[in-house]
Design goal:
The complex is a heterodimer. By secondary structure, chain A is mainly alpha-helical. Chain A has three helices and no strands. In chain B, the strands form five sheets. In chain B, strands 1, 2, 3, 4 and 7 form a five-stranded mixed beta sheet that branches. The chains are: A mainly alpha, B alpha+beta.
């Protein structure tokens, strides 16, 4: 009985030691991963900020205005005018279908002209 | 443990005496013992099973809880206690009301030198001088070789410049990371933004602080590390702001003016949708102009006319006298008042514009429509100086505007120290007291808001205090109706924008001379507009400095010819952007619509 107990205790100590050893290195690896991730996040944040700034710079109103002027013959963009606003009630109903009477068809017999 | 004997002597003897078989006693005792052993073993096994179950339950519930929290929690970036991420976006961004970027940060590098580590000071100095126009090779070489160990060379480098400096390859040239404040829209809303500069520079980082405008006024909020990730939302609308600046710039050129200011404000909340002052500057490269000694402060492009400019705003003040007299119940819009010009008061003579006489009597509404000085003077005298001051104070015209700009608290309206009757008269028509266009915008917004006090603000999510009542709703509505008549049949007829029911009041004031008195040919023209008149939503103030309209046979300097057309064009262009639909007068019924009705 007693030797079994000793062996079991020894084995459990060995197992715990192995577990602690592994846990230690896993923790260190997790810390390294975290630092790497943080650096990656910081770099991505920085890139994001720069891209946002670049987007705002490229879309600044005076540049857009110049581009609209340069491309007027293709785009024909003009400033928004009050008369362009309207309500749904101002839209006309589609025109009712009209019977096509441009090509009449004879329905009574006609005498053939003499050859 | 005391073991019970299987064959207790007493019972055996007794059994023998009775002639029974004593083995029965032994079997009986053996049975009892075995039963006791069995019971003990069962309890033990039950306990073990229970403990095992508890252990499994604990383990599985731990795993389950962990899975639950992992599934339910939002993934967040770990809070960095680890060094290595030393430069972070430290100053909050500034956005407009639709989330478009007005100010942000960009990572650049500063250039410094350790001259003692330099291999080739002469070559480095030459190369740097060739790269940067502001550097001088001889000067640099002298500073590299005079024995100092540290030297700043440039605050900010572009990535291309940094690469070229790298290519010089001298170990004495070093880079420090820098967060640079960037205004991607350039000159847009320059006076609101103000500008930013470096403070407390060190090799590893530098602090960015605001130097003017909202950057300085909200500096603590913008620098707060706890709120660095949350941008500051302004009430400005980028598109409307750009339109306002564009038209104001065109108006400035067409009217030959020296400067211009424009404010567009939401009537109900006091939110400033757009605010511009011309001439302006680029906040990315904030100038530091040196002005001649006799220059006005307004000659500097840094001067924000809308907030810092204190002007006698002229006839735009007349509506305050009319509104107050109606609010006090002294007059109604149709009451006739004395308007016989010129009017003699002590040694002062009150005249109308160009010596007109609109009298002998005018209704209050006509006093405003025709912009009669004499009529307003009589109304102001009826109100009296004490009540007049109280009303102007309640409208916020006598105190600095509470807007969130660094310049605002320092600009106290110029109010006469004593208030005799002649001051009551002149203040009635807007002379003798100066306030800023922003003060005027807030006062007009208060009238257009049905008499509830409006406080101007630039912050989208500012805590709004409940609005105090300054005047009765009826008097406020009647005042807006009078302002509408100014546009339909009065001095601001060029201000009519079809569909938008513009109401407003013009104001023309001679500029005061530095030594006292007034210039004959230098004026400040102001147009204060409210639109749409039937349900006021926005207030627009346009101020032009020294404008002159020269298309006619003689130069015209009244606001009706200069500020009003500019304001009308601003309303025509910005109102659709603000989501206001034009109110189209219904067409005369034709054959079809008449039948349908």
């Amino acid at each position: 009985m007693r030797p079994t107990l000793y062996i079991a205790a020894f084995l459990s100590v060995m197992a715990l030691a192995f577990w602690a050893y592994r846990e230690n290195y896993a923790t260190q690896q997790a810390l390294r991963d975290r630092a790497g991730l943080e650096q990656q996040i910081a770099a991505l944040n920085e890139a994001l900020a720069i891209q946002r700034a670049e987007w705002a710079y490229l879309n600044r109103p005076d540049r857009l205005r110049e581009l609209v002027t340069l491309n007027f013959d293709r785009l024909g963009l003009l400033p928004l005018e009050p008369h362009q606003l309207g309500s749904a009630g101002e839209v006309a109903f589609p025109a009712a279908a009209v019977l096509d009477v441009t090509r009449p068809v004879d329905v009574i017999g006609a005498q053939d002209p003499q050859p | 443990m005391i073991r019970t004997p299987l064959r207790p002597l007493v019972r055996i003897l007794q059994a023998r005496a009775k002639g029974e078989n004593p083995d029965g006693i032994e079997r009986e005792n053996l049975r009892l013992r075995n039963e006791a052993l069995r019971d003990r073993a069962r309890t033990r096994a039950q306990m073990r099973l229970l403990m095992l179950a508890a252990a499994f339950f604990a383990a599985f519930s731990l795993i389950g809880a962990r899975m639950g929290t992992l599934a339910a929690s939002v993934p967040v970036e770990p809070r960095g206690s680890v060094a290595g991420v030393d430069v972070r976006a430290s100053r909050a961004d500034i956005l407009d009301r639709n989330g478009r970027l007005l100010a942000t940060n960009m990572l650049t590098h500063a250039l410094y030198a350790h001259p003692r580590d330099m291999v080739d000071p002469e070559g480095t100095a030459t190369a740097l001088a060739a790269l940067f126009p502001e550097m001088n090779a001889d000067d640099l070489l002298r500073r590299f070789t005079d024995g100092r160990s540290f030297l700043w060379l440039r605050r900010v480098l572009s990535p291309e410049q940094m690469q070229v400096v790298h290519d010089i390859g001298d170990p004495g040239l070093l880079f420090g990371p820098r967060e640079m404040r960037l205004y991607p829209n350039g000159r847009l809303a320059a006076h609101v933004m103000g500008g930013a500069a470096f403070a407390d520079e060190s090799v590893r980082s530098a602090q960015v602080i605001g130097t003017a405008g909202i950057e300085l006024a909200m500096d603590t909020r913008l620098r707060d590390p706890g709120q660095a990730g949350q941008p500051l939302n302004l009430t400005l609308d980028l598109t409307v702001q750009a339109t306002l600046e564009e038209i104001l710039g065109t108006g400035l050129t067409m009217m030959n003016a020296k400067g211009a200011a424009g404010i567009l404000m939401d009537v109900r909340t006091g939110e400033i949708i757009a605010m511009a002052s011309l001439p302006d500057f680029d906040p990315n490269d904030r100038p530091n102009p040196v002005l001649p000694k006799d220059a006005e402060p307004g000659d500097s492009p840094l001067f924000n006319r809308a907030v810092q400019g204190l002007y006698e705003l002229g006839s735009t003040f007349k509506i305050f006298a009319a509104a107050q007299s109606m609010d006090l119940g002294l007059l109604t819009p149709d009451t006739l008042v004395d308007a016989d010009a010129p009017m003699q008061w002590g040694k002062h003579k009150i005249k109308e514009f160009e010596g007109h006489n609109y009298g002998p009597r005018l209704s209050v509404s006509d006093v405003i429509t025709k912009s009669s000085n004499v009529g307003t003077a009589h109304i102001a005298l009826m109100i009296g100086g004490v009540r007049q001051q109280a009303f102007l104070r309640a409208l916020g015209l006598m105190s600095p505007s509470p807007v969130e700009l660094a310049e605002a608290p320092k600009v106290k309206p110029l109010v006469p120290a004593r208030w005799p009757d002649i001051v009551t008269i002149t203040v009635g028509y807007g002379h003798g007291m100066s306030s800023s266009p922003l003060n005027l915008a807030a006062a007009y917004a208060t009238i257009a808001n049905g008499g509830l006090k409006v406080t101007p603000t630039l912050l989208r999510d500012a805590a709004r205090a409940p609005q105090d009542r300054v005047m009765g709703e009826a008097a406020a509505d009647a005042s807006v109706a009078m302002l509408r008549r100014v546009v339909t049949e009065g001095t601001a007829s060029l201000g009519e924008v079809p569909g938008y029911l513009v109401a407003g009041k013009t104001g023309t004031a001679d500029k005061p001379r530095r030594g006292g008195g007034y210039y004959d040919d230098k004026v400040i023209n102001t147009f204060a507009a409210v639109f749409p008149a039937d349900d006021p939503a926005f207030v627009l103030i346009v101020t032009l400095d020294e404008p002159v309209e020269t298309t006619g046979p003689k130069p015209r300097r009244t606001a009706g010819w200069t500020a009003v057309p500019v304001a009308a064009e601003i309303i025509r262009r910005t109102a659709p952007l603000l989501g206001l639909r034009p109110q189209v007068e219904p067409l005369a019924p034709d054959a079809v619509t008449a039948v349908r009705q």
